[in-house]
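step=encode ok
step=design start
structure_in=
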């Protein structure tokens, strides 16, 4: 699986590389200026407008991957989430794989390129296992959980919301049969994993998990806080 991800990272980088010769010696990425007209190229070299559904999906997954980097840096600083940092890094690699797949629409791509960027079902199996691994250590949910519970937990919950948007951005491609349904399934499961990781960060950092209670009135708000590490076995 990791070899497959590494291969697709190279493919994604290749589809972004437009003209190495024209940019030789420049201290900037290759291909600068090729999107100035509002269009860009997919991995199959097809030019499309940047607000095309495929580029919207690519942008959403790229934003998600970038924010996972923010979450990973925060988790690293906590000192209690080394395994979570590793999981987030692997998720970023998986998103590179998703991006390579999205950038190769089957209707306009060669069989060779489709084969190189075909979605790997093993990623879905892996993410389901990660959900179970972290979720089994958490207390059951009895009320709606609000985003919060410390900086890392809040960032992971924010990443979950970005992941939901990335998932929605892939739906138009699924309708047009331009994406493997497993790619959408993977993003859906990723949002579940990020939710679980947010609760995990809250528990390990011994911060309070804020849960929703219906306010008595707009002038007399009463909220309940739970500390996960004290209620782990509830």
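sequence_out=
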């Amino acid at each position: 699986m990791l070899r497959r991800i590494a291969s697709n990272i190279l493919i994604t980088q290749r589809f972004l590389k437009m003209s190495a010769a024209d940019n030789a010696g420049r201290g900037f990425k290759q291909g600068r200026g090729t999107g100035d007209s509002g269009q860009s190229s997919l991995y199959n070299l097809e030019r499309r407008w940047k607000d095309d559904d495929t580029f919207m999906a690519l942008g959403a997954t790229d934003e998600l991957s970038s924010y996972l980097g923010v979450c990973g840096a925060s988790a690293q600083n906590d000192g209690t989430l080394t395994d979570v940092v590793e999981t987030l890094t692997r998720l970023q690699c998986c998103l590179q794989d998703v991006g390579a797949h999205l950038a190769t629409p089957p209707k306009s791509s060669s069989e060779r390129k489709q084969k190189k960027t075909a979605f790997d079902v093993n990623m879905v199996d892996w993410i389901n296992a990660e959900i179970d691994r972290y979720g089994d250590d958490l207390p059951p949910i009895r009320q709606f959980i609000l985003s919060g519970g410390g900086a890392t937990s809040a960032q992971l919950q924010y990443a979950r919301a970005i992941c939901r948007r990335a998932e929605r951005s892939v739906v138009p491609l699924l309708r047009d049969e331009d994406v493997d349904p497993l790619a959408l399934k993977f993003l859906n499961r990723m949002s579940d994993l990020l939710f679980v990781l947010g609760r995990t960060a809250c528990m390990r950092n011994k911060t309070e998990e804020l849960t929703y209670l219906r306010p008595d009135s707009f002038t007399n708000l009463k909220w309940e806080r739970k500390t996960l590490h004290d209620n782990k076995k509830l």
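step=design ok
step=annotate ok -> Helices lie at 2-16, 53-78, 82-102, 111-116, 122-135, 151-175, 181-204.
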